[in-house]
Amino acid sequence: MNPASNIIPLFVILSLGGAFLISLLGKKIKSAPDILGVSTTLILCVLSFVAVRLVNIHGALIYSVGAWKAPIGISMVLDGLSSFMLVTVNLVAFCISVYSVNYMEKYTSKWKFYTLFLLMLAGMNGVIITGDIFNLFVFLEIASVASYALVAFGTEKHELEAAFKYAVMSGVGSLFILLSIVFLYSFTSTLNMADMSAILIQKGPSNIVLMVSVLFLMGFGLKAALVPFHAWLPDAHPAAPAPISAMLSGVLIKALGVYALCRIFYNVIGVNSTISSILMFMGALSMVVGVFLAIGQWDLKRLLAYHSISQIGYVVLGLGLGTPLGILGGLFHLFNHSIFKSLLFLNSGAIEYSTGTRDLRQMGGLAKKMPITSATSLIASMSIAGIPPFSGFWSKLLIIVAAVAAGRFIYAFWAVLASILTLASFMKVTKYAFMGSLKEALSGIKEVPALMKLSMCFLALICVIAGILLIPSINFIFMQKASDVVLEGAKYGNLFLGK
């Protein structure tokens, strides 16, 4: 086993260790939750970039838990796709943990928040690095259960109702995923994903694989909030505290939904034309339905929640196309959406923090009193709407060009239409929240505390840099490696069984 692979389990160990220490010290030392929460996410963020470098140097790495070799033992895998997702998840988690230092002051028991937050992060990191399909389910449930509690963190009536609805629907999704794993295990007699992939290729097409594919589509479709499995999301995201809304929309639905869907279908089961067509259809449907539902919303966080459904549609459409350009565009949009949607939810939290409202009709003229929030919100809005030169424009362009190149002109049309409607929706947000005259009731408001501004500015900077600097060399290394892993498909099995 390559010594460099010892970094892999740290993504779960550090998250769980941080959660344990905060639960132990948080009640006794007031500053402990903030210090431990931010420092843990910072270390994980740095390690994720180190992981990208290790993959570039050594290629794919595998860590055998307890020194038991695959396929008998449990494996943890670090390849281009998992290192890309680790950067995405842990970078956003670090920004949100910094933001939470000031924002969560208005809630009691900050130590409980950080404990649950790090448990959710441990679950997401576990899903990304595991090479064992049952452990994928276990980590998925750790992240899910922590997120249920975080949605209900304020303990108000609507928050508890949203958390209950989220828990029930997500539980149904988990049941579909568990049933799929049971059927696959009975068919292949292994839980190691690489071994499973090799056996499925050997056995060829079967009705069991077809049934499992349908169950996985429903299960991970629920986790990713794809239409028609999206009903839980518009309630859950607005109900949660702003940092958790950012985490749920920014990375949770991608790690538990899109990443797992991509890994299972491309690297384990294998994608055929039917699955590809279903993914493209669900992606286009999510794009259009999500944006149409968003336009009529006046609750800022609810509006953003519907846009999460729409933007995930772009990612799934790109992945469903199955072409090198489509997959690269889908993964690039996954990263971009994690950044600009997290920023938008942090902006909404900053507005609510200062004004006490999320209703756009009760706002107006906030740019005069909250210039940092206004500027960062404008950058994020332009990025999600696909306005050049911001990052969202390039990833959407790649997906649209890929659809045209593949002869999928209808899907390209819907992608363009959804982008235009997204722009209209965020012009409405900018007009009602930040433009115009300041309402008399809001004359005493001021900009949010320094750490909240710091997180928003950092995420806004990434939106700008990813658009201006990274596109001229679109194959920048960590994204191209991720795309290659998806394109290799079922070769994933041979790669890791040989190590």
What layout of secondary structure does this protein have?
Layout: H1 10-25, H2 32-58, E1 61-64, E2 75-78, H3 80-103, H4 110-129, H5 133-151, H6 157-188, H7 193-203, H8 207-224, H9 233-239, H10 242-269, H11 273-295, H12 300-321, H13 324-355, H14 366-369, H15 371-385, H16 391-405, H17 409-434, H18 450-468, H19 477-488, H20 491-497
Antiparallel strand pairs: 1-2
Structure characterization notes:
By secondary structure, this protein is an all-alpha fold. The chain has helices at 10-25, 32-58, 80-103, 110-129, 133-151, 157-188, 193-203, 207-224, 233-239, 242-269, 273-295, 300-321, 324-355, 366-369, 371-385, 391-405, 409-434, 450-468, 477-488, 491-497; strands spanning 61-64, 75-78. It has a two-stranded antiparallel sheet with strand order 1-2. It contains 20 helices and two strands. The protein has a domain at 274-468. Helix content is 76%, strand content 2%. It is globular.
